[in-house]
Every structure is written in C-alpha cells, then in structure tokens.
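In response to the reviewer comment on reproducibility (Comment 2.3), we provide here a single inverse folding case reported in full, input and output, so that an independent group could reproduce the run without further information from us. The structure tokens appear first.
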C-alpha cells in the first residue's frame, strides 16, 4: 500500500474508532473541531474521508434540525474490527484518555441551542432551546429589534440556560424553585 493510500486508510479507521468510542451521534462541526484541535488530520482529508465513508455505508448520517449527525454503522464496526491496528497506539491511548471529557462537551453543545434569524428589516427572531436526547425540554422564540440584542440573548442563553430552565419551570408551576 503506497503512503497516500495508507494515510487515507488510517484516517478512516481513526474516524471509525472515534465514533465507536464516543457512542453518541456527532455533528460534522463537532467532528471537524475535535479532529482539527487534536491535529489528527487536516480539514480536507477529514471531509473527503467522511464523504467516502458515507458512500461506503461505514457511517450512518442522520439529519436533525438541518445538521448532519454521524454514527458508526454495522459495516463500519466490521471494518474497524479488521483494521484497528492502523490507528497508532499513541493516538488510541490519547483518545481513550480524553473521550469522557469530549463526550460531555458534545452533549452540552447539542443540548443548549441558541440562534437568530433576520425576519425583516427591523426584526430578528431568536430561538433558544434545551434538548435532551434531541427532544426539546424547552423551546423559546423571541422577536427583538436589533442584531446586537439577538446576539446578546443567544450568548446569555448558552451561558445560563441550565440556570434559567428550572426558574421558568418553577414560575410556570407556581412554585419556588428552591422548594420543588
């Protein structure tokens, strides 16, 4: 196997190994960030590998809220079992050591969503959600008059959603949140 093909194979097996270890669907954005931050591969090789693995049914692609999420397919698991030794032991060890922290961050990222869209010249719609297993616990939509307000609400929702949610529930239930 020439060097270029070996590198492609190593990248694909690394991605399969990562999907196996993480055990939850992961968005393309999350996968890209993790692979680039850890310098496992460059952006173009990553996207090429993902595309080829989709084509070859090694990964399952599921679209939720206009985002693609990847998980390991049965065929991908078989491929991983056969070629796991292509992933250098140092990379596997590092990934094994950090996978719990990576999974926690990914769950938090997918559970708190805040985004805004321009509705007309003077109005922005802000969508704030908390998801649990991709099911909404709370979904709030607001209209605001400026992009700065929309950005501020999104930023604050992402920073404080876990504090705001119990307060909203307590108010709606007519209870003091500390005495629930």
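Designed residues, in position order:
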């Amino acid at each position: 196997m020439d060097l270029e093909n070996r590198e492609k194979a190593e990248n694909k097996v690394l991605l399969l190994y990562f999907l196996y270890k993480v055990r939850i669907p992961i968005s393309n954005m999350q996968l890209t960030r993790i692979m680039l931050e850890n310098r496992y591969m460059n952006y173009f090789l990553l996207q090429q590998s993902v595309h080829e693995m989709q084509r070859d049914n090694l990964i399952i692609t599921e679209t939720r809220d206009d985002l693609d999420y990847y998980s390991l397919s049965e065929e991908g698991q078989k491929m991983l079992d056969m070629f796991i030794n292509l992933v250098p032991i140092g990379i596997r060890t590092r990934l094994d050591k950090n996978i719990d922290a990576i999974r926690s961050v990914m769950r938090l990222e997918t559970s708190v969503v805040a985004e805004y869209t321009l509705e007309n010249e003077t109005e922005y719609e802000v969508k704030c959600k908390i998801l649990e297993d991709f099911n909404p616990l709370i979904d709030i939509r607001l209209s605001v008059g400026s992009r700065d307000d929309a950005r501020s609400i999104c930023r604050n929702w992402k920073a404080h959603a876990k504090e705001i949610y119990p307060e909203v529930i307590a108010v709606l239930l007519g209870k003091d949140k500390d005495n629930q």
